[in-house]
Amino acid sequence: MRKIAIVSGKGGIGKTTLAINLGYLLHNKFNFDSTVVDCNLTTPHLSINLGLYNHNHTLNDVLKGKAKLEEAITEHPTGVKLLPASLELKDLERVDIGNLPSVLQNPSSNLILDSAPGIGREGIAAISAADEILFITQPYTSAVVDVYKCGKIAEKLKKKVLGVVVNCRKGVKHELKDSEIEQLAELPIIGTIPYDIEIERSLASKLPLHLYNQRAKANMTFCNLASQISGTKIPKKESFFDGLLNLFRKEGKSLWGL
Ligand SMILES: Nc1ncnc2c1ncn2[C@@H]1O[C@H](COP(=O)(O)OP(=O)(O)O)[C@@H](O)[C@H]1O
Ligand SMILES: [Mg+2]
Fold first, then answer.
1. How far away, in angstroms, is 242 Cα from ligand 2 center?
2. In this predicted model, what pLDDT tens digit does every residue of 161-187 receive, in sequence order?
3. Domain spans in the chain, listed from the N-terminal domain onward
4. Which of 42, 55, 235, 241 is deepest in the core (most CB within 10 A)?
């Protein structure tokens, strides 16, 4: 099984957004069984962005040895498989994030790790637990410099680097150019996600972009990245009706246990 960490130096760059969308696409459209893991224990946003607030088990329980990894994995009605972190402050007590690599050692599906930002203990735990690293930045110097640092740590830990995704590109003059980002980060760019208000709308609706608006500009980048990661061609576009039908099927399955 592959373990891919989505990493950035700064917060608010787009890690959780990318994790949700890749998790959905890889698992549901690219035949690549994947679970998204919320490794950002102190400020977990994965399940909030999917509208899930109550969990029987969480990564916190797994780290404390109170639940098995598979017991804490849950499936969202959209088909995103996830391992949530607890939203309760008290559940941070006696949790050692340093145990992350060992509890994620033998997963039964591929893992997409949604990391905490930076190179503190939490961020390093996700890099250490993964075999492959996908960096994400925005086209500004501070964000790219932070990715450079994370890249050096990944190199030291002998992780395979998939490359860097540039997020929120607006195409305005003051943004760094791709060549400048590659030079500064010392990493190759493997995808560019445009700034797209449809992403904000999809998150507000608690849906992956592909289900919210398959034709949104940013959806093509998510599909391209999922294709590169899984090594599978992009499937042909669904009609609006097919997409709707798929969502209803999945919701029905989870609501009625069919
Ligand atoms: N390409 C994009 N276009 C527009 N808004 C975006 C884009 N990527 C992310 N966002 C917005 O930025 C916010 C922060 O993204 P998030 O994925 O939570 O960052 P991180 O996990 O790195 O802290 C989200 O609320 C989302 O609405
Ligand atoms: Mg996040």
1. 30
2. 999 999 999 999 999 999 999 999 999
3. 3-256
4. 55
